[in-house]
Amino acid sequence: MRSFVCLVALALSAIFAAAAPTPGAGELEARQSCPDVQVFFARGTGEIGTLGTVIGPSFSTALNVQLVGKNVRFTGIDYPALVSGFLVGGDAGGARTMANSVTSTANSCPNTKIVISGYSQGAQVTHLAARQLSSAIQDRIVAVVTFGDPNERTALPGVLQSRRKTFCNFGDLICTGQSIILPAHLTYGTDATAAASFVRARV
Hints:
Shape: globular
Oligomer: single chain
Distance between the termini: 54 Å
Radius of gyration: 22 Å
Number of strands: 5
Strand order of the largest sheet: 2-1-3-4-5
């Protein structure tokens, strides 16, 4: 009788194991390509490429130095970065792109640490994108780093405010909400190491 019960238990285990959902080949491939850390960065107004020149490249380099041994993916948000976007509080299309990119990564890469970041108008874009995220997706973001942030005094939604680091130089009028660019707004490359240290402590 005992052996019969054992046989039934084994049979039921096999049935339940067969019925349990398993990741498809596409899902497994996607997860295998997930980085340890994913940074989405928005450049400032008028900067070239998707990373710009003031802080994007140096921030990316500093992160790779400080997170040696981890797979770090640093992705620039592709958006126009026109003066008109800055004047209306940030490019709406760029914000949607960042929010969609964050959501996609959060859904497909459950173990990836996500960081969002931006410089100048890119900081505006980062703020706008954060507001478009559900609370569950916001919780997947481990750090928000902005430089020369026109919205320095504006809180981020939900948990993101407590995970925020803003770099605003003394004398940078952009950080006070004015549309005047002085030399202080163009030297954030010197903050790359400090910004990377902030992220490293959270991943």
